[in-house]
DNA sequence: TCCGTTAGTGTTTTAATAACACTAACTAGT
DNA sequence: ACTAGTTAGTGTTATTAAAACACTAACGGA
């Protein structure tokens, strides 16, 4: 089966930069390519947009197929379209960025598909295509959005402590924050709710667990 | 000549929302379609991405071809890709937004190409495709960026007064600003330079003319 | 020369942000 | 059972940034 057009068409892919946080380090999810071009190299999860599929749906589907992740937060980032970014044919990539808590995730790993693996943001392997540039832009956007939206809470699991949130913000932005001011600020946004339960994991005072009042919502700040 | 692929490819267009300001009103540039689909209706300038052309270049070229504008400020906005947005075939649109001063522009008008015409943002005709939604998003982005970047100055001609700038900001954001605070603020950004010349256009005190220190630069604020 | 109109200029008040140090609650080790 | 170690939790003051506010200057036209 072939498809014929009266003028040339580019291929279009969706590629996803998935961020998460573990052990106070920002991580991204990469897959190892098992086919040419760039066989064996690390790349962003992603793939070609189906002809009857929205780009958003494509991103969700490819992420599920290649990494096993589903139901996580996705946002369109930017479209990369220089003519020579893929050696095979003209490929335009609609890049997404995604945030997920690390807790309770299981990656497709060593399966028939590709290996998916978390990598420290500051210790990336060499990447296929222009995926390095895509990741740089995604990281810029992430740190920027942390300041003017509540998107950062997408890194949090269902229940979390205020110290968890502060440590997250410090990890992603790379700068320490005053404890009292941070807690005043995050609570003033009026998006968190005490659960009544507490988390005790060690020889110290247990911390109150919070949830998001409306988990789906992302508020713009200021 | 035809082009054949082993799996179906979407078409990709670049479409541009060009904003300008005239008589204290925000305007957008539309063209009247002379071909189906949506023949005779108004639409955004734009067209198909050449197979060896970057998307940015396509946006610049189409804008020039369809409206006569060149060398104006362009920024990628968002990529629209729901499967049914064009009745002919699957078309993915990479939307741009553009800002230009109105002074000294001449549009292609009634030529062999399409009619290009400025429309008040709040008095748009019915639009082809999903271009109405694209314009809404572009406007949101414009008002947002006005607050956290100096992109608004792309509306200004080579020389302008501080009152011109204030009136621009009031027009785009829709809210009045205190004169003294506005002037303190815009000067504190350290991006304007007195020319020494003054503009006198009426029976009142002439105003100092300013230029941008570095016209190409766009600063993020705060 | 008077009137209408827009340009230009500082100070005070108010609100937001940043700095800062101790007590509480728990566990593990003695 | 008490001590040491560790993280949670809490208000007040100082500093900085933003908002409010009214008059004089310069010009052209009547």
TrEMBL record, chains A, B:
Keywords: Hydrolase. GO terms for molecular function: hydrolase activity. Its cofactor is Mg(2+). It comes from the Bacteria. PROSITE patterns: NUDIX, NUDIX_BOX. Pfam families: NUDIX, WHD_NrtR. Residues 7-142 form the Nudix hydrolase domain. This is NUDIX hydrolase. It comes from Hwanghaeella grinnelliae.
């Amino acid at each position: 089966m072939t498809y014929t057009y009266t003028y040339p068409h580019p291929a279009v892919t969706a590629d996803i930069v998935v961020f998460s946080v573990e052990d106070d380090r920002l991580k991204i999810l990469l897959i190892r390519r098992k086919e040419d071009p760039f066989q064996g190299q690390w790349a962003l999860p992603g793939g070609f947009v189906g002809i009857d599929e929205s780009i958003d749906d494509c991103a969700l589907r490819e992420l599920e197929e290649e990494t096993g992740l589903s139901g996580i937060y996705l946002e369109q980032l930017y479209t990369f379209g220089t003519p020579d970014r893929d050696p095979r044919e003209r490929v335009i990539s609609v890049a997404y960025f995604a945030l997920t808590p690390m807790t309770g995730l299981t990656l497709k790993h060593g399966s028939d598909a590709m290996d998916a693996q978390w990598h420290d943001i500051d210790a990336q392997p060499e990447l296929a295509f222009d995926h390095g540039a895509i990741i740089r832009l995604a990281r810029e956007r992430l740190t920027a959005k942390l300041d003017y939206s509540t998107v950062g809470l997408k890194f949090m699991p269902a229940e979390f402590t205020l110290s968890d949130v502060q440590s997250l913000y410090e990890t992603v932005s790379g700068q320490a924050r005053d404890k009292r001011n941070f807690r005043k600020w995050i609570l003033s946004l009026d998006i968190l709710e005490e659960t009544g339960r507490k988390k005790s994991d060690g020889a110290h005072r247990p911390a109150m667990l919070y949830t998001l009042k409306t988990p789906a919502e992302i508020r713009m700040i200021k």
